[in-house]
Specification:
220 residues; alpha+beta
């Protein structure tokens, strides 16, 4: 289904990772790449202060303190910590900036060749209607669209958070969570060896994401 595919794209964090690169062409990977340790590192990047050492240790079960990649623009901020036991990445940006990417995603889906049946065309029309004017959404409207997409993907009514399992490498997976509140869009990607998405993991990731979101909103 067209809208479900769009919702899944959002849930996986691909939009957030892509738009965090801004206009300077430094797009982030859809999921963290362990080889990215060669990327520019600036520990003063705002996102690097949005999750404390104690919170990272609580989430991962051991210290993950080495900043291996940062990617900030005028609007977004990103920080990635990595160690032998895993990695954590946070990205924040105004929900308005995130919303501006949505019409392009719809266009990509439309040109992907997957719109073949009458049902597909109906869903595409629904997606276009839902995201009409997304490029000029206010922060409140952008977060409302995020909630609608989350609900389409099976989240509870009024959900402000999505969480899903994503590939990190060929053999390892991670958990990607996003939150949109107060006009701010925040993502957290977390991976440790042999990670499985369980209620306990979801709860820990959601708790860490909420801490990041609170600080990101306060910084704007």
């Amino acid at each position: 289904m067209m809208l479900r595919r769009l919702a899944l794209t959002v849930a996986a964090g691909l939009l957030l990772a892509a738009c965090s690169g801004g206009s300077d062409g430094k797009n982030a990977d859809p999921a963290p790449n362990p080889s990215a340790s060669q990327a520019t590192v600036d520990p003063k990047e705002p996102a690097c202060s949005f999750l404390t050492a104690g919170e990272r240790k609580e989430l991962a079960g051991s210290a993950i303190d080495t900043v291996v990649a940062t990617n900030g623009t005028d609007q977004s901020s990103q920080c990635r910590w990595q160690g032998s036991t895993g990695l954590i990445q946070v990205t924040t940006l105004p929900a308005q900036a995130w919303a501006k990417t949505l019409p392009q995603v719809v266009k990509q889906l439309e040109s992907s060749g997957g719109v073949k049946t009458a049902a597909d065309k109906k869903e595409l029309a629904r997606a276009k209607k839902l995201l009409s004017g997304a490029s000029s959404f206010t922060g409140k409207q952008a977060c409302a669209a995020f909630t609608t997409l989350a609900e389409i993907n099976g989240a509870k009514k009024g959900a402000t958070t999505t969480i899903s399992q994503v590939p990190i490498t060929e053999s390892e997976s991670g958990v990607s969570a996003q939150m949109c509140t107060s006009g701010e869009m925040t993502s957290l990607i977390f991976s440790v060896p042999d990670l499985r998405k369980t209620k306990a993991v979801d709860s820990a990731v959601t708790k860490a994401l909420a801490a990041v979101q609170k600080r990101a909103v306060a910084t704007r």
